[in-house]
Amino acid sequence: MSPRRTWATARRVLQQLAHDPRTVGLLLLFPSVLMMLLRYVLDSPQRFGASAPALIGIFPFTIMFLVTSVVTLRERRDGTLERLMTMPLGRLDLLLGYGLAFGLAALAQVGLVVLVTVTWLGLDVAGPLWLLALVAALDALLGTALGLLGSAFARSEFQAVQFMPLVVMPQVLLCGLFVPRESMSPVLEAVSAVFPLSYAVEGVNRIAAGTNQDLPRDLGIVAAAAVLALGLGAVTLRRKSA
């Protein structure tokens, strides 16, 4: 692993993203647009305040998973990854470079959605905003890592999108957004405890409520899941395009 090669990979990905305004718009603006839509659909500060903290974590996670898996798969399909792997570039350098590039994009995305939600849309957050942004950013990084991992098993962009119902939707349904996890059946609660998104949602809800109980555990689980996904992605990264 070489920090110089990792940063060179990240810089190349960022330069490519900068020349793709549609992807940049999806990454940076779409979560904020969804939050604004939710605010005016609910048309109630109380109802918005009950669901918005969880969605600050869910929207970046979902969008980063989708964009990362599709962009990475596109580079594999075009032969870019295959050419890079012929160079003296380790798999971990490559995956960390992609993770760093999309992670920086995720930080900008989360910063914007938190700013819009708290200032313009009037979400009342009892805890520190930087801590809320930190949890949401870790969750976006988790989506990035899972997207990189999922792209290793897809042969087309359509197959990459098909991983959404498999990887993302079960976590969204069981993370506590619709029904508190403790109110679920024992089987579903046990399954939800395996999903890292559950702990990200719990973390942002704790910060919004002004309590930090079990927050270090939540942060640790989300970060560990992201690191594990990146490690598995490095192991499963193919040297040849499918």
From TrEMBL:
Keyword Transmembrane in annotation: yes
Regions annotated as coiled coil: none
Its membrane topology: Multi-pass membrane protein
Family matches, as Pfam families: ABC2_membrane
Keyword Transmembrane: yes
Localisation: Cell membrane
InterPro entries per record: ABC-2_transporter_component, ABC2_TM, ABC2_TM_bact-type, ABC_2_transport
Residue ranges crossing the lipid bilayer per the database entry: 21-42, 54-73, 94-123, 129-149, 161-179, 219-237
Alphabetically ordered keywords of this record: Antibiotic resistance, Cell membrane, Membrane, Transmembrane, Transmembrane helix, Transport
Main subcellular localisation: membrane
ABC transmembrane type-2 domain location: 14-240
Family: Belongs to the ABC-2 integral membrane protein family.
Protein name: Transport permease protein
Organism annotation: Kineosporia corallincola
